[in-house]
From TrEMBL:
Residue ranges with Basic and acidic residues bias: 99-120
Pfam families: Bac_export_2 (PF01312)
Organism, as annotated: Escherichia coli
InterPro entries noted in UniProt: T3SS_substrate_exporter, T3SS_substrate_exporter_C
Protein name in the entry: Type III secretion protein SctU
GO biological process: protein secretion
């Protein structure tokens, strides 16, 4: 949720596996914007106060519009920053091994791959 402190609330929906471009899911003003902000806060939706960005997107988009090419960089940077903040402090998980890779520990560590064999 991007907001001007009290007058505008813009919801951004972004699920890259469904659509590579974010869309405007909420576009409201005044008392409705205050209510949307309150509800978003209650259910744990992040609210970013950016007066300029909220006003620009309110002026140039309608509800269910995809974010325009002119605004996409700013929105994606914001979403990437938010993802970094949400992931901060989370344990790093190892990527699962593919079925083609096998790790065998012995005197020397041997990494087998279908393309080549390396010994360390």
């Amino acid at each position: 949720m991007i907001s001007n402190p009290t007058h505008i609330a813009i919801g951004i929906y972004f699920k890259p596996h469904l659509s590579p471009i974010p869309l405007i899911s909420v576009r409201v003003t005044n008392e409705v914007a205050l209510g949307v902000r309150k509800y978003a806060k209650e259910i744990g939706i992040p609210i970013i106060t950016d007066k300029k960005l909220a006003r620009k997107n309110y002026a140039t988009h309608r509800r269910y519009d995809y974010v325009s090419f002119e605004n996409i960089d700013e929105i994606l940077r914001l979403l990437l920053w938010l993802e970094d903040v949400e992931n901060a402090g989370q344990p790093v998980q190892d990527e699962p091994l593919s079925s083609e890779d096998k790790f065998i520990e012995g005197e020397d560590t041997k990494i087998e791959n279908k393309d080549d064999n390396l010994k360390n």
